[in-house]
């Protein structure tokens, strides 16, 4: 048998597994605190507590290390499922919109390309050669005469 622990805000409710007889609760060195099956700790400060409940010769011990907070919101499973489903639907909707808008743009020509006529391509003349790299002409050999190869 196990304890049943319920936490809501800063209130912790513990239910003893014993069902019959007068139940006595004890907490870390403090005198008996209640005589009911359920023990309620209000304004719990998240400090660990050793609890025990006993009835006659049967005793159950429990170490309670419950984290509580004052500003927490409780969400049931339906609310969490709804939030996740809505998030996925919105994400897929945005993906579909981006896909369709980008798909339509592929076939369109850009505005600058539309102003040029679409006829045969006119060949451009070759680029003007750089004067620093012109080939040696027959009459200009004296310019390069000082660049003789040296023997090593």
UniProtKB/TrEMBL annotation:
Region (Disordered): 106-140
UniProt keyword Membrane present: yes
CC terms in the record's Gene Ontology section: alpha-beta T cell receptor complex; external side of plasma membrane
Record's bilayer topology term: Single-pass type I membrane protein
Matching InterPro entries: CD3_esu/gsu/dsu, Ig-like_fold, Phos_immunorcpt_sig_ITAM
Keyword Magnesium: no
Transmembrane stretches, start-end: 77-101
GO biological process, one term: positive thymic T cell selection
Assigned keywords, A-Z: Cell membrane, Immunity, Immunoglobulin domain, Membrane, Receptor, Signal, Transmembrane, Transmembrane helix
Any one GO molecular-function label of the UniProt entry: transmembrane signaling receptor activity
Predominant localisation class: membrane
Compartments (UniProt record): Cell membrane
Cited PANTHER family: T-CELL SURFACE GLYCOPROTEIN CD3 EPSILON CHAIN (PTHR10570:SF9), T-CELL SURFACE GLYCOPROTEIN CD3 GAMMA CHAIN / DELTA CHAIN (PTHR10570)
Name under which the protein is recorded: T-cell surface glycoprotein CD3 epsilon chain
Gene source species: Stercorarius parasiticus
């Amino acid at each position: 048998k196990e304890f049943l622990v319920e936490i809501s805000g800063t209130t912790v409710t513990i239910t003893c597994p014993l069902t019959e007889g007068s139940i006595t609760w004890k907490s870390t060195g403090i005198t008996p605190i209640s005589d009911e099956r359920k023990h309620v700790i209000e304004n719990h400060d998240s400090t660990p507590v050793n609890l025990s409940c006993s009835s006659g010769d049967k005793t159950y011990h429990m170490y309670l290390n419950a984290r509580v907070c004052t500003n927490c919101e409780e969400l049931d499973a339906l609310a969490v499922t709804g939030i996740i489903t809505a998030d996925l639907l919105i994400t897929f909707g945005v993906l579909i919109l981006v896909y369709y808008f980008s798909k339509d743009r592929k076939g369109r020509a850009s505005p600058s390309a539309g102003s040029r006529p679409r006829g045969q391509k006119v060949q451009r003349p070759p680029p003007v050669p750089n004067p620093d790299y012109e080939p040696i002409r027959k009459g200009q050999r004296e310019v390069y005469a000082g660049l003789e190869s040296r023997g090593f």
